[in-house]
Design brief:
8 strands, Rossmann fold, about 15% strand, about 300 residues, eight-stranded mixed sheet, binds NADP nicotinamide-adenine-dinucleotide phosphate, alpha/beta, globular
Amino acid sequence: MPGFTASDVTDQRGKCFLVTGANTGIGFEVARALAGKGARVLLACRDEGKARAAMARIESEIPAADLALIPLDLTDLDSIRRAADLTSAKPRLDALVNNAGVMLPPLTRTAQGFELQFGVNHLGTFALTGLLLAKLAETPGSRVVVTASLAHRRGQIPFDDLNAEHSYNRYQRYGNSKLANMLFSFELDRRLRAASSAITAIGCHPGLAGTDLMRHLGPFKGISGLLRLVLNTPEMGAWPALQAACDPSAQGGDYYGAQQLGELRGPSGKAWRTQRSQRSDLAERLWDVSVAMTGIDPGLRPAQNILP
Ligand SMILES: NC(=O)c1ccc[n+]([C@@H]2O[C@H](COP(=O)([O-])OP(=O)(O)OC[C@H]3O[C@@H](n4cnc5c(N)ncnc54)[C@H](OP(=O)(O)O)[C@@H]3O)[C@@H](O)[C@H]2O)c1
């Protein structure tokens, strides 16, 4: 089975996609591919200079590209609120592609004091998505894409120490944040279905792609050079997100990832996920904690609490 690649993305003229972390790596390639298919792309980035440079790169290749910058720093709920307001003022939003992420930083805290990996990768994604659901609901068939990772397989949700007050293992915390991405995307889809919403939520992972994600690996970040040779390029790493965002046959609750070499590389298709990532008890508890921590309530009730 060949699997889904960027060449399977059909004409997207008339549609609008918001891609977080679109200035580099996988997010950049998602934005470039969508712009190449005629979509309007909102690049949600924290560094205006890098974002403008990325937009110029896309425009040099696709002169007709329809691009706009949405300033977004996922370490700060105020910035997330402003980005959601700016996006909500746009005429339409067909898909929110939650791609931005951080991996293996030293212990760092967000503006609101959250541990950085959980704060950016999960809480930031949760907050932005929650604030944009009303806008997405205006467009029939709109989608929320959440980017997880193979690293979700080793993840846990340490409810007694979500903010790393007692211990911090950066590898474990990355896996935890990616498990949280999985739990959130499936819980979001379950709640949307239960609310008879036309929005769908779909998860994805890029396999292993040589990008700037390795930036905190210090002297070991050179392995990203090797990865660039043998594993996914950023362009290939974008395929699962593109499938999640654009494949007409994709369903809410699906999870897409690279299909070859143990899901490390290659075209996109249905991916494997752990039992833990599908546990609704964990997902519901994480949802409630995320509402409490961010103060942002997406306003959807748990699926089983809705009577048929
Ligand atoms: N590469 C892989 O092999 C791999 C594997 C599994 C999952 N993933 C996931 O794929 C996604 C994209 O990763 P990548 O490999 O493309 O990494 P990348 O090249 O490092 O790109 C990450 C993007 O996220 C942005 N970002 C980081 N912190 C942010 C914040 N506080 N606010 C807003 N944007 C922020 C970065 O902006 P700056 O450039 O300004 O820092 C950058 O645009 C991540 O969610 C990652 O966990 C990647």
